[in-house]
Write a structure and sequence with these properties.
The complex is a heterodimer.
Chain A: H1 2-25, E1 47-49, E2 56-62, H2 67-85, E3 90-96, H3 105-117, H4 121-130, H5 134-137, H6 142-151, H7 156-164, H8 169-182, E4 189-192, E5 195-196, H9 203-217
Parallel strand pairs in A: 2-3
Antiparallel strand pairs in A: 1-3, 2-4, 4-5
Chain B: H1 2-25, H2 39-44, E1 49-50, E2 53-54, H3 55-73, H4 82-110, H5 115-137
Antiparallel strand pairs in B: 1-2
Helix pairs in contact in B: 1-3, 1-5, 3-4, 4-5
Classes of the chains: A alpha+beta, B mainly alpha.
């Protein structure tokens, strides 16, 4: 029995020591500022939510087929919209970063851009992320996306023409190039006032960040 | 006795895992060492909190309770105590049910897996099975010796 208690003590000491060592290293330091972004071919810099002159702007590089992006959009984003964007404390900028490993993410990004043409980018954004089952089935989502377009009240003739002509393909390419130049490796990736964000990606974390940056601003 | 020893050892490891996740959640650790998993994503989700407290803290409490009861069960006077075996099984069942819920959230809601959570789930499942085996092996009608 003594041996067993010695084993327990050894496990507790080693495990406790590892935890203590980890806590002494502290949270990761923020990375240095990023290089200036590359402008899109048509000067488009992404759809935004929020006030025109907020103290803080977050740029999100996202992929509509990415499950983490969908979870972020449906779990964290509603709180961020309500507590930070609607109150004028934060502007949110959405940039496309469709990953080549995802079969229909580029198609979904085009659908969102075509909805944006009719002033309903965010409505399509919400449809694509809320009804994310399409990303798991592997089936061609064309008719489903058209249903989304119909549901949010788009002019379907205009939407079809936009999609068939891939009207905003160059925007997507420019957005991807911009992300790559900034060092985006995966999605979702965030930049806060142009600096890479290395936090946890929760609404609480963004709120704390906005609080701290707003204080600095004053 | 060997089952109870294994249970105590496992709950200690589980306690360390839960403490690690809790320290991360309260900002005392920079990054989770996760390899290819999605630990930070899972820990950053709203499901990582329950009633305003980090889920990992419930884990710390649960494992600590199991560890304490398990340690008590190693004392000779409680070796054949069915009430203690029942208490261990009850605690482990609650822990196992909570583990099932959290694993379901990971698989079906977040579509992301945290390796540390999987480790904790494996530990809790084993602890639950051990506690049931211990309950079956402990004869009924026994009370602590005086």
């Amino acid at each position: 029995m003594k041996r067993f208690y010695l084993l327990l003590v050894a496990v507790a000491v080693i495990g406790g020591g590892a935890l203590w060592y980890g806590s002494q290293r502290g949270p990761a330091a923020p990375e240095p500022s990023a290089p200036a972004p590359v402008a899109a071919t048509d000067g488009f810099r992404g759809y935004t939510l929020g006030s025109d002159s907020p103290p803080v702007e977050v740029t999100e590089y996202s992929d509509f087929e990415c499950p983490f992006c969908a979870s972020f959009a449906t779990v964290q984003m509603p709180v961020i919209r309500e507590q930070l964007i609607a109150t004028g404390r934060l502007r949110w900028r959405f940039r496309d970063f469709p990953l080549p490993s995802h079969k229909y993410s580029r198609y979904a990004a085009l659908a969102a851009q075509c909805a944006g043409e009719q002033g309903k980018f965010w409505e399509m954004h919400d449809q694509l992320f809320t009804n994310h089952q399409w990303a798991q089935t592997g089936k061609n989502p064309r008719s489903l996306f058209r249903d989304f377009a119909k549901a949010i009240g788009l002019d379907l003739d205009k939407y079809d023409a936009c999609m068939d002509g891939q009207r905003y393909a160059a925007r997507l390419d420019a957005s991807v190039r911009e992300g790559e130049a900034l060092g985006v490796r995966g999605t979702p990736s965030f930049f806060v006032n142009g600096r890479p964000y290395t936090g946890r990606g929760t609404s609480d974390d963004f709120k704390a960040l906005v609080d701290s940056l707003t204080k600095k601003h004053k | 006795m060997i089952r109870r020893q294994a249970l105590v050892l496992l709950t200690l490891v589980g306690l360390l895992v839960a403490t690690y996740l809790w320290l991360y959640k309260i900002g005392m650790l920079g990054q989770l060492q996760c390899g290819t998993g999605s630990c930070e994503f899972v820990q950053a989700s709203r499901y990582a909190e329950l009633f305003g407290l980090p889920v990992a803290l419930y884990g710390v409490g649960g494992y600590a309770a199991l560890f304490a009861v398990g340690l008590a069960g190693l004392q000779p006077r409680f070796a054949a105590d069915r009430r203690l075996a029942r208490l261990l099984a009850a605690l482990a069942t609650v822990g196992f049910a909570f583990t099932l819920y959290l694993t379901g959230i990971e698989l079906f809601v977040l579509h992301a897996i945290c390796r540390w959570c999987v480790a904790s789930a494996a530990i809790m499942t084993t602890v639950w099975l051990l506690s049931l085996a211990e309950l079956r092996a402990t004869p009924s009608g026994t009370a602590p010796s005086r």
